[in-house]
Design goal:
Length: 267
Amino acid sequence: MTAANPMMSTETPSLPVFVRTPSQAAEDIAAEILELVASRARAGRCAVLGLATGRTPLEIYAVLARRVREERLSLANVVTFNLDEFLGLAPAHPQSFRRYMCERVFGPLGIEGERGHLPASDVSDAHTEAHCRAYERAIAEAGGIDLQVLGIGSNGHIGFNEPGSARDSRTRVVELADSTRRDAAAAFGGLERVPRRAITMGVATILDARRIRVLAFGAHKRDIVRRTLESTPGSALPATFLHGHGDVRLYADLEALGTGFQGASSR
Ligand code: GLP
């Protein structure tokens, strides 16, 4: 281990770790989101959220849905942009991220129509480039992302920025890594049914977010969390590009951090 290892360093870590159970993290992040939304509403402005799919953020969305329902909150000033979407699926396909968002987020939170953005899953090859540029433009026109919710793939991808993705990459079509397709195979009912391509926000698009809240829970994330914390930023592990962002937090449980976690950087 080197002095640059944030888990051993006594200096301020560049990727601050917040040790939380999944439930605690969901409550904390949902509260942060609702405070942001309320403060923007008081100022007559929109709150722009960057959202992720996958299993990890589900509890955040459940807490948000519960609080919106119980406290009769309005999210009428919320605009959302998803990180990514599989390419080559009908929007209503059970594994499309649009379907996930409609069922888990847009419906329960009352985010209607034009306010919930995802890259298209069914855009033709001739139109993907224009579509990706329009997605970047829409984020910019909304005022940029205030808070990005993020997971980490088992190979260190963020969004679908697979290993090899550049720090300055923007929204684009990507080939999915074999490991990513294997991770998705069970949900799709077989590897051959998993799309080979996706559209993802780029690394630079993600890093433009004013706040980034990364989540990683469970022993199956331990290896990638350790490597993300220990490695210097580089394309081999896109999650390492999060180091040094001005307002990033990694929420992880002890299963993901491992028993050797020193806690020097934890809150
Ligand atoms: C998917 C998504 C990522 C997500 C990651 C982890 O491939 N494109 O945005 O963060 O996998 O998923 P999970 O939260 O299910 O572990």
